[in-house]
Amino acid sequence: MSRVAPTLEDVARVAGVSRATVSRVVNGTRNVDPELQETVRNAIEQTGYTPNRVARSLVTRRTGTVALVISGAGGGSDVFTDPFFGRVTAGVVDFLRGHSVHPVLMLADSDHARTEVVEFLRQGSADGALLVSTHPADPLPARLLEAGVPSVLYARPGRPMPIGYVDMDHRAGGRLAADHLVAAGRYNIATISGPMDVLASQDRHAGFRDAMARHGFPYVPTAEGGFTAESGAAAMHRLLTECPDLDAVFAANDLMAQAAVDVLLEHGLRVPEDVAVVGFDDSAPALACRPQLTTIRQPVERMAAQMADLLLAELEKPGQRPRSVIFEPELVVRASA
Amino acid sequence: MSRVAPTLEDVARVAGVSRATVSRVVNGTRNVDPELQETVRNAIEQTGYTPNRVARSLVTRRTGTVALVISGAGGGSDVFTDPFFGRVTAGVVDFLRGHSVHPVLMLADSDHARTEVVEFLRQGSADGALLVSTHPADPLPARLLEAGVPSVLYARPGRPMPIGYVDMDHRAGGRLAADHLVAAGRYNIATISGPMDVLASQDRHAGFRDAMARHGFPYVPTAEGGFTAESGAAAMHRLLTECPDLDAVFAANDLMAQAAVDVLLEHGLRVPEDVAVVGFDDSAPALACRPQLTTIRQPVERMAAQMADLLLAELEKPGQRPRSVIFEPELVVRASA
DNA sequence: TGGATGTATGGGAGCGCTCTTACAACGTTG
DNA sequence: CAACGTTGTAAGAGCGCTCCCATACATCCA
């Protein structure tokens, strides 16, 4: 099309007005003669003008983008295979698009990468950060805070700090699972926890254990997993060795629950007849699993959208007290328990 | 930290040099006295200076970001649940991060959204576009081309146009599946195709059918699916009605293959003993499925990385003839066939 | 009628950076 | 020793935009 993009100046010349007037028409359109507006609009049409967002950003100090930072502790970029992050992304994108804000995706899985994220934001390349950080020891929240970057977390920070976040009542989720299993008349109940250095895992486990204790089961056989299918299968094997007569398993996410079901089936055990299985999250694998998983729903998309909402609010009027929003889990009964 | 960010000017004042010198140190560092460099570096340290990327972009005409556009025809943002897009994202992010380029995520699932994408790029908010477009009728490639936006596609465009892309030899993939099934001694072979308005689906199907014909099977019972689990299950049901004695199914992606397996199992058929199933993609569901899926591998991550590579090359030296790279599929034999 | 108020427009500074140009200081060469 | 690079630095224009301020004119009430 055009070799060199037309500028405000060009439009102004064509319309026979000043740059300022064109700018007014392009933006707020306040106090411009309707007739002149028409002229300017024609000139814009004629020249094929598109405002240069970068130039605008330079003076407004706003880019219209936010960083969506996946601070996965672990192994590189296969985080995107995890349905959880896909759901977060979906929720964020879906919310932001309605506000003409665009997320730029960043992975913060190494110290180098984290520094790059902080730099990126300090340089004003994005207006703020949405931080999906699972590790309580993650230094990124504190560093962003220190750098004065408006940020909101998914999951509460490892130690208290004045930063907004969305989270879920994971303990309540654990309780829901225990209640359901006990109410179903199960007696030998075990659990596959998530990685214990993740707060969400600790909470789900604590909630589950507490409820079990209240139901008269002071000890719950536990195998720690890593939120992946493989780790879930391995944990299930350990559990089966420790207590071959178990009749129920609560897994801290669906991926592990699905793997657990597979292992049980391979051992000739029927699900849910012989062993009931409850998952967590209510993500795609819960439905793909046979039998379909009874699970604890985490409204990831809504939470992600809320996180984005909090950030935009903070950008809108900075310096507010950071807010947090906690979501309630929900038991979803399907075939596996 | 700092209320107002220090600028080049501030650093220059502290170091007692000119802005230009500081700029040289920050960037190319050509022709600056080592001693002075040291002084400047100290000044940078002292002031906590970070270059303002926006200001830099304004003059260099480069933002260091590219748009990753998911031009899903269909239903909004649940595309991120599809493992395919997760893999694309992973491949892109992984490649770009090594080049200090960041992807901004955009969904182009409506005409409005498409216009916004074009605007975004015309405004110079990103240096180029990575377009994951499945629909041959998608107007976006042509519009980006027309707008002069450097772009690379995932999957060849619906009609020939001078734009680079990566793709796979889907026909060869279909052939691989047919060969494998026939070699395994299957006789009543059916297939669940992808949506027929998608080129990849057409190609996979054509390759499969051609190979089948060459093997002496001129007619292949076909049910069209939509690449989703539900559509796969529905297609499997139809196939079972049409030819109850089938002994093999080739599904055009793993999601549908997995669903097909479930339906077969529900019907009391054993996989692979009674019915062999071959999937396509080799994505997460292929491994999660029981039995694990024999499938045709599409190296999505590598393709996505290649796509990003092509775009960066085009940005590096514009005006080159657009390039395309075709990847070969690979048969992955597991338990299901 | 005159000052006060309000509305529409233009002029121009300035956002923070890069990059070209000019120039000073230093060799190096025929 | 004049003429010529070579190298290191400063000065300043300019990227395209927003926004403040000045100006011009219309409108109003006392």
Automatic annotation (TrEMBL), chains A, B:
InterPro entries: Cro/C1-type_HTH, HTH_LacI, LacI/GalR-like_sensor, Lambda_DNA-bd_dom_sf, Peripla_BP_I. Residues 7-36 form the HTH cro/C1-type domain. Residues 6-60 form the HTH lacI-type domain. The keyword Transmembrane does not apply. One of its GO terms (molecular function) is DNA binding. The keyword Kinase does not apply. Keywords: DNA-binding, Transcription, Transcription regulation. SMART domains: HTH_LACI (SM00354). It comes from the Bacteria. Coiled coil: none annotated. This is LacI family DNA-binding transcriptional regulator. The lineage of its organism: Bacteria, Bacillati, Actinomycetota, Actinomycetes, Pseudonocardiales.
